[in-house]
């Protein structure tokens, strides 16, 4: 495609979107145009989807998104020139999109914005913990196949110890990243967030992992009161609470302290109270809340009714992605890891992603003569198996309906197998086929079985449902 070819398509899209007066903000990502519209009803979704350059549409997080493909940047430049809309940042788009959200949607969007910048580190950490698991805990090596690699080789022993340097930095010192991310999101001073985060994990404090076994808790003695010197390594909720206190203190102080002295007094009067409140009030409260949430989830998954919890979660996770509520699971996973040294929730997420990708694979075969559909479905299946589900779900599965249902059912069955056999992940990881690298080594076999189910069941069900009335109605609705 080239710029000249996009001219007519851009004019056509502008007309179908409701004209430039209906565009509040427009930007783009790797494959999609992202619109925040003044009135979503003015956009003719059917006519837009019928355009040759368009691979699909969906609405998510207050944004109307149009899948263009790899040439989206070129198309965007042509469109913005014709539409007379200026270049706008993704942050501006997010702010504008929130005008179309409910209170709950805004809350979830804020949570997502906190954890999204941390995901690359969390994925790397998960892979490293998985690799350490293989070389440090799998007793399948040596002459009798009963030794771990670290016992056989000084190199692997050293590598195992060295890699923990990164694992500890990512997971034990996670509060530093969380508080930094909050200050970044709120537009406040990021180095103050980093400093506050460090005070939560300082070596001066009793490590969070040593609190349960400690015979005596050290404390600061102020004469009239004492404060326990407890660290919050890997704790999520205390870090979130402390981060928002710091951010709102700084924002408030900026309004009342004159600019000439703000450089001195805003950081001082924001950071000092935030550190005090974090250790005296929010830390202990956040610890209790985090423990409660983690214990409820873990107890639910390991109880006699764990299979039912797993079935419901496996079935409902993909719809949660549509609403954005799935971002809450990041905080729960990280909290589970801090208490139980692993998470039994995350494996189900990886299985759900695999199931959605498998449904798309079935649709690739069913629509093998539809070249336009293949341009969407093949890249969507690949990205889904690598943990990014939105192109698969919005571009194919939800559009047809029946593959989405098939994937949900396959995900539910796979989740029951995973939870029923006690599968645990070391951490959050790559949420697709590579997810097995984050699974604790003792559970590789059963997670492999669950993966096979997450691949096979959606494939078979999608083929089967395509021949039913549900499938035929979907094809008729889409004019295929």
From TrEMBL:
Name its cellular compartments: Cell membrane
Query: What InterPro entries does this protein's entry cite?
Result: Glu_permease_IIB, PTrfase_EIIB_Cys, PTS_EIIC, PTS_EIIC_1, PTS_IIB_1, PTS_IIBC_treh, PTS_Sugar-Specific_Components
Q: Does the entry feature the keyword Transmembrane, yes or no?
A: yes
In this protein, which residues make up the domain named PTS EIIB type-1?
7-89
Top-level taxon of origin: Bacteria
**What Pfam families does this protein's entry cite?**
PTS_EIIB, PTS_EIIC
Annotated PTS EIIC type-1 domain ranges read 109-477
Transmembrane stretches in the record are 107-131, 162-182, 191-210, 230-249, 261-285, 305-325, 404-424, 444-466
A GO biological process this protein is involved in?
A: phosphoenolpyruvate-dependent sugar phosphotransferase system
Q: Which GO terms describe its cellular component?
A: plasma membrane
Write out the entry's keywords from A to Z: Cell membrane, Kinase, Membrane, Phosphotransferase system, Sugar transport, Transferase, Transmembrane, Transmembrane helix, Transport
Which residues are named in the active-site annotation?
29 (phosphocysteine intermediate)
> Would the keyword Transmembrane be found if you checked this record's keyword annotation?
yes
Which membrane topology term applies here? Multi-pass membrane protein
GO MF annotations in UniProt = kinase activity; protein-N(PI)-phosphohistidine-sugar phosphotransferase activity; protein-phosphocysteine-trehalose phosphotransferase system transporter activity; trehalose transmembrane transporter activity
Protein's recorded name: PTS system, trehalose-specific IIC component
The protein's organism comes out as Amphibacillus marinus
């Amino acid at each position: 495609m080239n710029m000249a070819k996009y001219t007519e398509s851009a004019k056509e899209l502008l007309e179908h979107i409701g004209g430039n007066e209906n565009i509040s903000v427009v930007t783009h990502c790797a494959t999609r145009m992202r619109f925040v519209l003044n009135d979503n009803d003015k956009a003719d979704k059917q006519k837009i989807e019928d355009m040759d350059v368009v691979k699909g549409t969906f609405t998510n997080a207050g944004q109307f998104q149009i899948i263009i493909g790899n040439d989206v940047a070129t198309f965007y430049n042509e469109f913005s020139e014709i539409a007379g809309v200026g270049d706008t940042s993704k942050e501006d788009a997010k702010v504008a999109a929130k005008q179309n959200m409910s209170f709950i949607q805004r809350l979830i969007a804020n949570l997502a914005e906190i954890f999204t910048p941390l995901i690359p580190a969390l994925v790397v950490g998960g892979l490293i913990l998985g690799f350490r698991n293989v070389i440090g805990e799998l007793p399948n090596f040596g002459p009798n196949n009963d030794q771990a690699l670290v016992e056989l080789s000084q190199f692997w022993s050293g590598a195992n110890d060295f890699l923990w340097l990164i694992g500890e930095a990512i997971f034990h010192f996670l509060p530093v990243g969380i508080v930094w991310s909050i200050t970044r999101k709120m537009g406040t001073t990021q180095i103050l967030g980093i400093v506050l985060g460090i005070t939560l994990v300082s070596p001066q404090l009793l490590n969070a992992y040593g609190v349960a076994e400690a015979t005596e808790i050290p404390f600061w003695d102020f004469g009239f009161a004492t404060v326990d010197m407890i660290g919050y390594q890997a704790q999520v909720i205390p870090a979130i609470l402390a981060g928002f206190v710091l951010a709102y203190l700084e924002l408030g102080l900026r309004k009342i302290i004159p600019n000439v002295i703000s450089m001195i007094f805003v950081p001082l009067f924001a950071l000092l109270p935030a550190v005090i409140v974090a250790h005296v009030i929010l830390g202990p409260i956040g610890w209790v809340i985090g423990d409660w949430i983690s214990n409820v989830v873990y107890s639910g998954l390991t109880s006699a009714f764990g299979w039912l919890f797993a079935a419901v979660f496996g079935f409902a996770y993909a719809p949660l992605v549509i609403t954005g509520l799935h971002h809450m699971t990041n905080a729960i996973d990280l909290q589970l890891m801090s208490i139980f040294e692993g998470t039994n929730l995350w494996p189900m997420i990886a299985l759900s992603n695999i199931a959605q990708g498998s449904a798309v694979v079935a649709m690739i075969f069913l629509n093998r003569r539809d070249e336009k559909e293949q341009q969407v479905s093949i890249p969507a299946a690949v990205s889904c198996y690598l943990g990014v589900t939105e192109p698969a779900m919005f571009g194919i599965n939800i559009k047809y309906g029946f593959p989405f249902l098939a994937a949900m059912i396959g995900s539910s069955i796979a989740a029951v197998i995973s939870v029923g056999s006690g599968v645990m992940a070391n951490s959050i990881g790559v949420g697709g086929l590579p997810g097995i690298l984050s699974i604790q080594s003792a559970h590789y076999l059963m997670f492999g079985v669950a993966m096979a189910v997450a691949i096979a069941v959606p494939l078979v069900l999608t083929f089967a449902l395509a021949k039913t009335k549900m499938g035929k109605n979907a094809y008729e609705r889409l004019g295929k």
